[in-house]
Each structure stands twice: as C-alpha cells, then as structure tokens.
Amino acid sequence: MTIKEIQEEIVDEFSMFDDWMQRYEYMIELGKSLPLIDEKYKVDENLIKGCQSKVWVHADLEGDKLAFTADSDAIITKGIVAILVRAYSNQHPTDILEADNKFIDEIGLKEHLSPTRANGLVSMIKQLKMYAIAYQTQLD
Amino acid sequence: MKVVANKLPLDIETIRLDFPILKREVNGYPLVYLDNAATSQTPQQVIDVIVDYYSNYNANIHRGVHSLSQEATDKYETARKKIQQHFNVAKSHEIIFTSGTTHGINLVANGFAQELKKGDEVIVSALEHHSNIVPWQMLCEKTGAVLKVIPMNQEGELDMDAFHKLISTKTRIVFVNHVSNALGTVNPIEEIIEAAHKVDAAILVDGAQAAPHIKADLQALDVDFYVVSAHKMCGPTGVGMLYGKEKWLNKLPPYQGGGEMIATVSFEKTTYADLPHKFEAGTPNICGGIAFGAALDYMNTIGFENIATYEEQLLAYATEKLLEIEGARIYGTSKHKTAVLSFNIEGLHPYDIGTIVDKLGIAVRTGHHCAQPIMDFYKIPGTVRASFSFYNTFEEVDLFIAAVKKAKMMLQ
Prior knowledge:
Chain A is of the alpha+beta class and 140 residues long. Chain A has helices spanning 3-15, 20-33, 75-88, 93-98, 102-106, 121-139, and strands at 47-49, 54-62, 65-72. Chain A has one domain (3-139): Sufe protein. Chain: A. Chain B has helices at residues 12-16, 44-57, 67-86, 101-111, 134-143, 160-166, 189-198, 218-221, 246-251, 286-302, 304-323, 350-359, 372-378, 394-411; strands spanning 25-26, 29-30, 32-33, 95-98, 121-125, 146-150, 171-177, 202-206, 225-229, 240-244, 262-265, 270-272, 328-331, 340-345, 362-363, 365-367, 383-387. Chain B is built from 14 helices and 17 strands. With 412 residues, chain B is an alpha/beta fold.
C-alpha cells in the first residue's frame, strides 16, 4: 500500500467513531499495540525531547524501504506515534519525503501536532523525514 | 458536592459573575479553570479599566504637558501608590514597574554583577522556578561567585537546618520564592530573611505565587527585594512590580538605557533619573500598570483573609477527594501550602491525564512547571497541577475529580 492509501484507511477507521472519547480510546489501544522499539535503540541519540512527553524513534533500511520503530512515555503521544509509524513505515524514502500529514487533521487529532504542544511529535515527523533524506542519499 | 464545607466567607456565585470568561465552554463542556498558578482570570472591573484607558485617556506619561498625558500620568502614579499601600511599602519610589516577575529578578541579578567577586556565595532554594535559577547561574558565571542550593525534603519543604549551615559571611545574596509554583509550599521567608541579614547578605523573595493568596507586609518582613506579576492576581499580563529598599535601588546600576530613565544626556556623560524612573527606561506598560492597581482594588474588596480561608477549604476538599482515587500521589504535602495540588496517578503519564481532562473542559497544567530540579528530586517526568482561586467552587472540584477518574479509566 502507498502512504496515501494507508492514510485513507486510517481516516476510514476513525470515521466510525461518533465522539472524541471513542477516537481517543482507539488511539490509546493503538498506542498499546505499538511494536516497542528494541531497548538498545531507546537511547539518547534516538530521543526526541518534548517539554511534555518523550519520543524515541529508530529507522532500519530493509531493501529499498525504511522501517521505523518508535516509542513514547505518554500513551496518547504513543498512539499518534503508532499512527505515524503505520503510515510511513516500509515505504521508500522518496515517498516519505513527499507525504504530508493532512490526514491527522481529518481524524481530529490536529491539536497534537501543534508545535506549542511540545509533546515531541512535530520533531518526530521532522526526524522521520531526516532519516528519509539520509537513506535516500545512501540508496542513490 | 457531598461534603458541606464550613460556613463560606465568600459569596462565590456572585463573585463568578464578575469573570466573563467563566461563562464559556471548552470542548463542549463548561470551563473549569484550574490553572490559576499559571495565570489568573480577569474580572470585568479590571477589563473596564483597560477599555477606559484606550477609549478615553491613552497618552504617553511623564513627558507631555497636554491634559491627556497628565491624566494618564496621574492614573499611573496612583496605581503605584495603590501597590505601595497594598504591600505596605514605606516610599512609593521603592516600587518599580516591571514587565513581570522574571524582569524584576533579572534587573536585580544584573545589578548584583558589580557587587560580587570570585569566591562570594549566592544561595537559591531547590524549590525555585527556572526564572529564579537561571539569572543567578548567569550571574555566578559572570562573577565567579558560587551558587549554593538549599535542599528540600520529601514533603516539598526547604531543609532549614541545611540552610543555616549553608549561610555564612561569604553569602552575599539569597534568593527564594515565597510560595513554590510547582508544589504550593509556603516557605518560611521570615526565618530566611532574618538569617540573611545576620550575615549582611541581601535577600530577594519571588512573590509571584504568594501574591494571589497572601498579602505580604514588606516593611514588617524587612525584605530587600520582592517581585510579583500582575497577571497572577487578576491583573493583565506584561506588568509586575519590583520592590527594592531605597538604599539598594540607589546602589544598583540601571538595567536598561533609554528614555524616561535619564536626567541629562550628552555624548560625554549621562546622569540618571531619580527613583523609580532610573529603572523604568522607555514607555512603560501604562495601561497595564493602571489595571494592576484596579486588580489590587478588586482583590482587596474581596479581602485576602476571606480568600485564604475559602481557598484553604477548597484545597482540603480537593486533597481529600483526590486521595480517594487509587494510585494518586500528591507532591508537596507541607502543612503550609497555598491551594495547589501537584499530583500523579500511578502508571499514568501527566501529559495523558492533562489531555483527557482538557477534553472534558478542565484546564490544568502538566509537565515540569519550569521547575525541573523538583521533578528530578522526585524522579518523575512531571506532574498534573491543579491550582485553585477564590472563584473556583466545590462543584468544580467534583467535576475535576470526575474527569481525573474518567481519564484513569480510559488510560489504564
């Protein structure tokens, strides 16, 4: 599936919910199911320090695709991390660089990507793209 | 509300009508505003003063001969006198208008650069806000003075035995907050001031968190510097007060150069204006200063004793209810506290709790509260902080507790 298709699938899943509470409960579930980052990668170099919550992210190149694993100390942040990992993982670096995050608005979670929220998510997206740039160069 | 409090000293429902913002909804729920330690809400009486200023007598002060300028100057100087009276200060020129507490602290820290030499000691407390740590660290780096820290205990109180061992004739200045922003602990500043003066050290007390709850008598305290922000006591943002004893304010150099702070200027030599203008360079926050005076009028009409009595009841009720939640732990359990509940629920991240309760219309602060050393002491990433004001109700405490329970249910 392309990033766009996965994003549409996520939007579809969230459209089943009537209110914020169901959306959040689903997100919390997603957070709990996130494959944890290998402990050896949960180090300061992979840490994105938000003022409110922390995010760790690690990337591996598998063939010509990038696989991400990630974690957060806050479960709601982790839920969004899970959504982002699902959308961007196992994709070609060029596609990752071209993708946008409008789908986060569409599922009603825009506030979590506000830079002032300081939960590490904005920096996480930047970090995903940085990995994509780095590995794109490697692939070229 | 299940527990009926003792007879209330205030008619809260009437008081709440003064605050237009308390009528609004957030995320579809009535706003329950429990972030008063970050900033307090503004009553209509103060909003009216702000509107009146810009509608009727907006003019630059202290330099125009025209009537509007005179009117604005009179109102601004009247506000200074109101602040003087409120804090029982001997002379009105010992009150310096600032942009807020941080500005006041930096002004004094900067001035002390010329007072300190290598080997001198500066004491701060472990309970400080970053704004009362960083300026002194910068000062110590600049002068070679050594920064000493008064440690805290598990209750969130200062270790006073350790303080008395730390302070010596090497100590030049002590900085401590009156009330901790992260925990609400009321520090024994009388004892600290007395000890500082015994060794001829100066003392600055950060009153930002105390001022909304405690009416400090600065002459009785005999403190050298006291700083507050108007926006924590029903006034507007961007204005505050630095109180300094006249002898200190005369001794310290100006902080910023500009208009208003000079007597004469030539390229050879500039002489500085008298107090308080020496420290008030440029056009000040005129409207803010006047509104600060109005905010003090408002709070004094309600009465600080009434406020303290009522908030104590609110805090006791909220503490009791919160501790009924399994896994709740309160940080800052001193007997001497303002109405602040800093807490965590076992196994849950404060950010998650804050996010869910916000969805239910409850405004609380989460994070390290600009006091990372306190969080490091407890080995936690942060806390959820609910901070109460006299306009909060027991029903709001119930809504807050219900929201925390809901968050706990969703997150576990």
